[in-house]
Structures
1.
Amino acid sequence: MMKPTLEDAAIGVPNHQIPPNATQILSEATPEQERWVLARLTTSTDKEAARVVGVHRSTVGKWVNKANLDLAVKLLLADAVQGAKTIIEGAVARAAQELVDLLNVRDPRVRLAAAENILDRAGVVKTTRQELTGKDGESLVVRYVNDWRTPEPEPKEK
């Protein structure tokens, strides 16, 4: 089976205007329409996707941008990797907000875990401790060189 092209996906779009990519189409869609497009990727019909999202199938048919939404579905299906990335990118802001919202729950363990996750993703590095030992696990001997705490010996006179 041949991979659909952008021209194939544009069939049914007025004047064959091809938006640059599915991400642009989804950025102009309502949250309900975005969920419908994502549901449409895993269902066989528009009606089934509407049921999954919780809207009536006639509502989907009345959407002014329905042709663009259908194009987004076709583009996402044509490139499965890009489709997966688009789905994930669309969920990033919501996922981040969920983490932030967890900072306000009653359970301090949940708040701590959320804070750690946020700091980790922001690139704040945890302090790590490392135990040092000498040869064969013996105690480590530390010798100070030019230690300011120990006075230097007086120079010997000749």
Note: The chain has one domain: 6-121.
2.
Amino acid sequence: MAAIKEIISSAMPFIGSLLGGPIGGKAGEFLAQALTGNKFASQDDIEKAFLSASANVDKLLELKKLDEQYKEKVLSTYVENLRFENEDRDSARKAQVENVKVHSLNMPAILSLIIIPGFFLVLLLIMMYPVQEPSRNVIDLLIGFLGGSLGQVIAFYFGTTHGSLEKTRLMFTKIQTPLKINNEYKK
């Protein structure tokens, strides 16, 4: 598989980079459908069809176009998922603002004022007083619940680190797409 993956990567760099990864199965189905007309084709059938197609310049150009189309499809799906996540967070925050306006009750703030001191109070009490063995499991469960809730409170007010990590990854990842400048391809 490694040898054919390298060959596919040379002609179809985007699809080749996905093979063997988390969405490699979908990329493989797309490749199999494009080459054999059967998305469930065997690896041998895909390999034969690819080697046959790569011997023909027109077919090779067609494969490169398919690679670009698949790249656009994957990236547009990714962007759509990000848009959905942002809209979901935005609507939750807008609903919270509206709820405070209508009911004059800020439930997340009230829960935060219970959860944050509650977490540290439980920790302090455990350090000051030894926990009896029959209660150990209940106390562990309580600490786990309060610790998870504390994380959610922080994420609600300050946002999650997912978006920050993703932005950092994108800033430092150079997209390996050659640019055509003055009829020459440059990296």
Note: Residues 1-103 form one domain.
